Amino acid sequence: MQEEQEFINHLLNPKTQNQAFQRLLQDYQRPLYNHIRNIVLNHDDADDVLQNTFIKIFQNLKNFKGESKLFSWMYRIATNESLTFLNQKSKTSGISSETLQNKTIDNLEADVFFDGNEIQIKLQKAIAILPEKQQLIFKMKYFQELKYEEISEILGTTVGGLKASYHLAVKKIEAFVAIN
Amino acid sequence: MKTLKLENKPKIEPGFKTPDHYFENFSVKMMAQFPENEPKVISIFQKRKSLVLMVAAVLVLALMIPIFGPSSTNTKEIDAAELENYITYQSNVNQYDLISVLESEDISNIRTNIIVEDEAIEEQLSLNANLENLILD
Protein backbone atom coordinates (compact mmCIF):
# COMPACT_ATOMS: atom_id res chain seq x y z
CA MET A 1 0.00 0.00 0.00
CA GLN A 2 2.93 2.30 0.76
CA GLU A 3 4.48 1.53 -2.61
CA GLU A 4 1.17 2.38 -4.23
CA GLN A 5 0.96 5.66 -2.24
CA GLU A 6 4.45 6.57 -3.44
CA PHE A 7 3.38 5.88 -7.01
CA ILE A 8 0.30 8.09 -6.56
CA ASN A 9 2.55 10.85 -5.17
CA HIS A 10 4.71 10.58 -8.29
CA LEU A 11 1.59 10.86 -10.43
CA LEU A 12 0.53 14.01 -8.57
CA ASN A 13 3.97 15.67 -8.53
CA PRO A 14 4.40 17.84 -11.65
CA LYS A 15 8.11 16.98 -11.75
CA THR A 16 7.56 13.22 -11.93
CA GLN A 17 4.06 13.17 -13.42
CA ASN A 18 4.90 12.40 -17.04
CA GLN A 19 7.18 9.50 -16.24
CA ALA A 20 4.70 8.11 -13.71
CA PHE A 21 1.82 8.37 -16.15
CA GLN A 22 3.76 6.52 -18.81
CA ARG A 23 4.26 3.72 -16.33
CA LEU A 24 0.54 3.78 -15.48
CA LEU A 25 -0.33 3.41 -19.18
CA GLN A 26 2.18 0.62 -19.61
CA ASP A 27 0.81 -1.36 -16.67
CA TYR A 28 -2.90 -0.83 -17.13
CA GLN A 29 -3.82 -0.05 -20.73
CA ARG A 30 -4.18 -3.70 -21.77
CA PRO A 31 -6.21 -4.99 -18.81
CA LEU A 32 -8.43 -1.90 -18.91
CA TYR A 33 -8.85 -2.22 -22.68
CA ASN A 34 -9.87 -5.88 -22.30
CA HIS A 35 -12.33 -4.99 -19.56
CA ILE A 36 -13.86 -2.22 -21.65
CA ARG A 37 -13.89 -4.27 -24.85
CA ASN A 38 -15.75 -7.09 -23.09
CA ILE A 39 -18.47 -4.59 -22.25
CA VAL A 40 -18.73 -2.54 -25.46
CA LEU A 41 -17.67 -5.38 -27.82
CA ASN A 42 -16.54 -3.11 -30.68
CA HIS A 43 -12.85 -2.04 -31.02
CA ASP A 44 -13.47 1.57 -32.07
CA ASP A 45 -15.87 2.07 -29.18
CA ALA A 46 -13.40 0.44 -26.78
CA ASP A 47 -10.68 2.80 -28.00
CA ASP A 48 -12.89 5.86 -27.33
CA VAL A 49 -13.87 4.64 -23.88
CA LEU A 50 -10.28 3.74 -22.96
CA GLN A 51 -9.14 7.28 -23.78
CA ASN A 52 -11.97 8.78 -21.74
CA THR A 53 -11.10 6.45 -18.89
CA PHE A 54 -7.45 7.52 -18.71
CA ILE A 55 -8.41 11.18 -18.96
CA LYS A 56 -10.85 10.69 -16.06
CA ILE A 57 -8.15 8.86 -14.09
CA PHE A 58 -5.70 11.70 -14.67
CA GLN A 59 -8.24 14.38 -13.75
CA ASN A 60 -9.42 12.64 -10.58
CA LEU A 61 -6.18 11.29 -9.15
CA LYS A 62 -5.99 14.20 -6.73
CA ASN A 63 -9.36 13.10 -5.32
CA PHE A 64 -8.33 9.47 -4.88
CA LYS A 65 -8.31 8.89 -1.14
CA GLY A 66 -6.79 5.41 -1.16
CA GLU A 67 -9.85 3.70 0.33
CA SER A 68 -9.39 1.00 -2.30
CA LYS A 69 -6.50 -0.16 -4.44
CA LEU A 70 -5.59 2.06 -7.37
CA PHE A 71 -6.34 -0.85 -9.71
CA SER A 72 -9.92 -1.23 -8.33
CA TRP A 73 -10.53 2.50 -8.57
CA MET A 74 -9.39 2.59 -12.21
CA TYR A 75 -11.48 -0.45 -13.10
CA ARG A 76 -14.49 1.22 -11.52
CA ILE A 77 -13.95 4.28 -13.70
CA ALA A 78 -13.56 2.06 -16.78
CA THR A 79 -16.79 0.20 -15.93
CA ASN A 80 -18.77 3.40 -15.45
CA GLU A 81 -17.39 4.95 -18.62
CA SER A 82 -18.30 1.81 -20.61
CA LEU A 83 -21.85 1.63 -19.30
CA THR A 84 -22.37 5.38 -19.80
CA PHE A 85 -21.08 5.05 -23.35
CA LEU A 86 -23.53 2.23 -24.14
CA ASN A 87 -26.45 4.12 -22.61
CA GLN A 88 -25.64 7.21 -24.66
CA LYS A 89 -25.22 5.14 -27.81
CA SER A 90 -28.59 3.42 -27.35
CA LYS A 91 -30.27 6.81 -26.70
CA THR A 92 -28.66 8.33 -29.79
CA SER A 93 -29.68 5.33 -31.88
CA GLY A 94 -33.20 5.40 -30.47
CA ILE A 95 -33.11 1.72 -29.51
CA SER A 96 -32.96 -0.11 -26.16
CA SER A 97 -29.60 -1.16 -24.75
CA GLU A 98 -30.60 -4.85 -25.18
CA THR A 99 -31.37 -4.31 -28.87
CA LEU A 100 -28.12 -2.40 -29.30
CA GLN A 101 -26.14 -5.20 -27.68
CA ASN A 102 -27.72 -7.87 -29.90
CA LYS A 103 -27.12 -5.72 -32.96
CA THR A 104 -23.46 -5.33 -32.02
CA ILE A 105 -23.10 -9.09 -31.52
CA ASP A 106 -24.67 -9.71 -34.95
CA ASN A 107 -22.07 -7.37 -36.43
CA LEU A 108 -19.18 -9.25 -34.79
CA GLU A 109 -18.99 -11.80 -37.58
CA ALA A 110 -18.18 -9.07 -40.08
CA ASP A 111 -15.93 -7.23 -37.61
CA VAL A 112 -12.28 -7.08 -38.72
CA PHE A 113 -11.19 -7.07 -35.13
CA PHE A 114 -13.04 -10.26 -34.18
CA ASP A 115 -11.60 -13.64 -35.05
CA GLY A 116 -14.03 -15.76 -33.07
CA ASN A 117 -16.08 -18.66 -34.36
CA GLU A 118 -19.69 -19.77 -34.02
CA ILE A 119 -19.37 -20.82 -30.37
CA GLN A 120 -17.87 -17.49 -29.37
CA ILE A 121 -20.73 -15.60 -31.03
CA LYS A 122 -23.27 -17.93 -29.38
CA LEU A 123 -21.56 -17.37 -26.02
CA GLN A 124 -21.89 -13.58 -26.50
CA LYS A 125 -25.60 -13.99 -27.34
CA ALA A 126 -26.10 -16.11 -24.22
CA ILE A 127 -24.35 -13.54 -22.04
CA ALA A 128 -26.59 -10.83 -23.52
CA ILE A 129 -29.71 -12.43 -21.93
CA LEU A 130 -28.31 -11.86 -18.42
CA PRO A 131 -29.06 -8.74 -16.35
CA GLU A 132 -26.42 -6.01 -16.74
CA LYS A 133 -24.62 -6.61 -13.44
CA GLN A 134 -24.60 -10.37 -13.88
CA GLN A 135 -23.06 -9.91 -17.34
CA LEU A 136 -20.28 -7.83 -15.77
CA ILE A 137 -19.66 -10.41 -13.06
CA PHE A 138 -19.53 -13.25 -15.58
CA LYS A 139 -17.20 -11.42 -17.98
CA MET A 140 -14.83 -10.29 -15.21
CA LYS A 141 -14.66 -13.80 -13.73
CA TYR A 142 -14.68 -15.92 -16.88
CA PHE A 143 -12.92 -13.85 -19.54
CA GLN A 144 -10.66 -11.64 -17.41
CA GLU A 145 -10.11 -14.23 -14.66
CA LEU A 146 -10.23 -11.65 -11.89
CA LYS A 147 -10.44 -12.94 -8.30
CA TYR A 148 -13.76 -12.61 -6.50
CA GLU A 149 -12.13 -10.25 -3.98
CA GLU A 150 -10.96 -7.98 -6.81
CA ILE A 151 -14.40 -8.00 -8.45
CA SER A 152 -15.94 -7.25 -5.04
CA GLU A 153 -13.77 -4.11 -4.68
CA ILE A 154 -14.65 -2.95 -8.18
CA LEU A 155 -18.40 -3.60 -8.16
CA GLY A 156 -19.08 -3.20 -4.46
CA THR A 157 -20.82 -6.59 -4.19
CA THR A 158 -19.95 -9.14 -1.52
CA VAL A 159 -17.84 -12.14 -2.47
CA GLY A 160 -20.70 -14.46 -1.54
CA GLY A 161 -23.08 -12.51 -3.75
CA LEU A 162 -20.61 -12.61 -6.62
CA LYS A 163 -20.14 -16.38 -6.36
CA ALA A 164 -23.87 -16.98 -6.33
CA SER A 165 -24.41 -14.64 -9.30
CA TYR A 166 -21.58 -16.20 -11.30
CA HIS A 167 -22.76 -19.81 -10.81
CA LEU A 168 -26.28 -18.81 -11.77
CA ALA A 169 -24.94 -17.03 -14.87
CA VAL A 170 -23.06 -20.18 -15.89
CA LYS A 171 -26.25 -22.27 -15.62
CA LYS A 172 -28.29 -19.78 -17.66
CA ILE A 173 -25.63 -19.54 -20.39
CA GLU A 174 -25.26 -23.33 -20.67
CA ALA A 175 -29.06 -23.71 -20.84
CA PHE A 176 -29.32 -21.03 -23.56
CA VAL A 177 -26.63 -22.65 -25.69
CA ALA A 178 -28.27 -26.08 -25.26
CA ILE A 179 -31.63 -24.74 -26.55
CA ASN A 180 -30.26 -22.46 -29.27
CA MET B 1 -24.46 -28.47 -30.99
CA LYS B 2 -22.28 -30.00 -28.33
CA THR B 3 -23.38 -29.25 -24.79
CA LEU B 4 -21.47 -26.28 -23.47
CA LYS B 5 -19.64 -26.76 -20.18
CA LEU B 6 -17.98 -23.52 -19.19
CA GLU B 7 -15.96 -25.17 -16.42
CA ASN B 8 -14.09 -27.20 -19.05
CA LYS B 9 -10.57 -26.16 -19.96
CA PRO B 10 -9.35 -24.44 -22.00
CA LYS B 11 -11.76 -21.60 -21.45
CA ILE B 12 -13.46 -20.00 -24.48
CA GLU B 13 -11.71 -16.75 -25.41
CA PRO B 14 -13.89 -13.76 -26.38
CA GLY B 15 -12.19 -13.62 -29.81
CA PHE B 16 -11.39 -9.92 -29.76
CA LYS B 17 -8.41 -8.55 -31.71
CA THR B 18 -6.70 -5.17 -31.80
CA PRO B 19 -5.02 -3.36 -34.71
CA ASP B 20 -1.24 -3.86 -35.04
CA HIS B 21 0.80 -1.69 -32.62
CA TYR B 22 -2.41 -0.45 -31.07
CA PHE B 23 -1.11 -0.23 -27.51
CA GLU B 24 2.23 1.43 -28.45
CA ASN B 25 0.35 4.07 -30.44
CA PHE B 26 -2.22 4.45 -27.68
CA SER B 27 0.46 5.40 -25.14
CA VAL B 28 1.91 8.00 -27.48
CA LYS B 29 -1.55 9.39 -28.23
CA MET B 30 -2.43 9.65 -24.52
CA MET B 31 0.85 11.31 -23.48
CA ALA B 32 0.38 13.89 -26.25
CA GLN B 33 -2.97 14.85 -24.70
CA PHE B 34 -1.55 15.72 -21.31
CA PRO B 35 -0.12 19.19 -20.64
CA GLU B 36 3.63 19.44 -20.51
CA ASN B 37 4.92 20.61 -17.19
CA GLU B 38 6.99 23.69 -18.02
CA PRO B 39 8.99 25.27 -15.24
CA LYS B 40 7.18 28.28 -13.89
CA VAL B 41 8.97 31.51 -14.82
CA ILE B 42 8.51 34.37 -12.40
CA SER B 43 9.69 37.73 -13.75
CA ILE B 44 11.95 39.72 -11.33
CA PHE B 45 9.94 42.81 -12.22
CA GLN B 46 6.79 41.05 -11.14
CA LYS B 47 8.51 40.00 -7.91
CA ARG B 48 9.64 43.58 -7.20
CA LYS B 49 6.16 44.91 -7.93
CA SER B 50 4.65 42.46 -5.42
CA LEU B 51 7.20 43.56 -2.79
CA VAL B 52 6.41 47.27 -3.35
CA LEU B 53 2.69 46.58 -3.03
CA MET B 54 3.23 44.67 0.22
CA VAL B 55 5.31 47.49 1.76
CA ALA B 56 2.71 50.06 0.69
CA ALA B 57 -0.07 48.01 2.31
CA VAL B 58 1.85 47.79 5.59
CA LEU B 59 2.49 51.57 5.61
CA VAL B 60 -1.16 52.35 4.99
CA LEU B 61 -2.20 50.07 7.85
CA ALA B 62 0.38 51.66 10.16
CA LEU B 63 -0.92 55.18 9.37
CA MET B 64 -4.52 54.15 9.93
CA ILE B 65 -3.95 52.90 13.49
CA PRO B 66 -3.71 56.38 15.22
CA ILE B 67 -6.81 57.57 13.30
CA PHE B 68 -9.04 54.57 13.75
CA GLY B 69 -7.41 52.96 16.71
CA PRO B 70 -9.22 52.66 20.03
CA SER B 71 -9.31 55.98 21.98
CA SER B 72 -8.08 55.65 25.49
CA THR B 73 -10.00 57.30 28.20
CA ASN B 74 -8.87 57.97 31.68
CA THR B 75 -12.22 57.42 33.10
CA LYS B 76 -12.24 54.98 35.89
CA GLU B 77 -15.09 54.03 37.99
CA ILE B 78 -14.54 55.19 41.53
CA ASP B 79 -14.62 52.40 44.02
CA ALA B 80 -17.27 52.99 46.74
CA ALA B 81 -14.85 52.00 49.49
CA GLU B 82 -12.23 54.42 48.15
CA LEU B 83 -14.79 57.21 48.08
CA GLU B 84 -15.82 56.49 51.64
CA ASN B 85 -12.22 56.46 52.82
CA TYR B 86 -11.59 59.76 51.06
CA ILE B 87 -14.61 61.41 52.61
CA THR B 88 -13.73 60.04 56.07
CA TYR B 89 -10.00 60.67 56.19
CA GLN B 90 -9.01 63.12 53.50
CA SER B 91 -11.77 65.61 53.07
CA ASN B 92 -13.12 68.35 55.28
CA VAL B 93 -16.66 67.01 54.97
CA ASN B 94 -18.26 66.37 58.39
CA GLN B 95 -21.36 64.44 59.35
CA TYR B 96 -23.58 67.54 59.33
CA ASP B 97 -22.56 68.31 55.73
CA LEU B 98 -23.43 64.74 54.76
CA ILE B 99 -26.81 64.85 56.51
CA SER B 100 -27.73 68.08 54.72
CA VAL B 101 -27.09 66.37 51.33
CA LEU B 102 -28.87 63.12 52.06
CA GLU B 103 -32.62 62.68 51.50
CA SER B 104 -34.71 61.26 54.35
CA GLU B 105 -35.16 58.04 52.34
CA ASP B 106 -31.41 57.70 52.06
CA ILE B 107 -31.06 58.23 55.78
CA SER B 108 -33.64 55.58 56.62
CA ASN B 109 -31.82 53.15 54.28
CA ILE B 110 -28.65 53.63 56.24
CA ARG B 111 -29.56 51.18 58.84
CA THR B 112 -27.21 48.74 60.22
CA ASN B 113 -28.33 45.82 62.24
CA ILE B 114 -25.46 45.20 64.50
CA ILE B 115 -26.21 43.14 67.48
CA VAL B 116 -23.82 44.04 70.28
CA GLU B 117 -23.71 42.40 73.62
CA ASP B 118 -24.20 44.65 76.69
CA GLU B 119 -20.86 43.55 78.09
CA ALA B 120 -19.11 44.66 74.89
CA ILE B 121 -20.76 48.08 75.13
CA GLU B 122 -19.68 48.50 78.76
CA GLU B 123 -16.16 47.51 77.91
CA GLN B 124 -15.94 50.05 75.12
CA LEU B 125 -17.36 52.79 77.29
CA SER B 126 -14.93 52.02 80.10
CA LEU B 127 -11.98 52.32 77.67
CA ASN B 128 -13.18 55.64 76.38
CA ALA B 129 -11.53 58.53 78.20
CA ASN B 130 -14.00 61.04 76.82
CA LEU B 131 -17.03 59.29 78.24
CA GLU B 132 -18.38 62.48 79.78
CA ASN B 133 -18.18 64.28 76.42
CA LEU B 134 -20.14 61.51 74.74
CA ILE B 135 -22.89 61.72 77.40
CA LEU B 136 -23.09 65.50 77.03
CA ASP B 137 -23.14 65.19 73.14
Describe the structure.
The complex is a heterodimer of chains A (180) and B (137). With 180 residues, chain A is mainly α. Chain A folds into two domains: 1-95, RNA polymerase sigma factor, region 2, helix turn helix motif (Rna Polymerase Sigma Factor, Chain: A); 116-180, Arc Repressor Mutant, subunit A, CATH 1.10.10.10. Helix content of chain A is 78%, strand content 0%. Chain A contains nine helices and no strands. Chain A has helices at residues 2-12, 17-40, 43-60, 70-93, 97-108, 118-127, 132-143, 148-155, 159-179. In chain A, helix 3 (43-60) packs across helix 4 (70-93) and helix 6 (118-127) packs across helix 9. Chain A is globular. Chain B is an all-alpha fold and 137 residues long. Chain B has a domain at 81-113. Chain B has helices at 22-33, 44-68, 80-90, 95-101, 104-109, 118-127, 131-136. The termini of chain B are far apart. The mean pLDDT of chain B is 67. Chains A and B meet through helix 2, helix 3, helix 6 and helix 9 of A and helix 1 of B.
List keywords for this structure.
heterodimer; A: Rna Polymerase Sigma Factor, Chain: A; Arc Repressor Mutant, subunit A; 0% strand; globular; B: mainly alpha; 7 helices; elongated
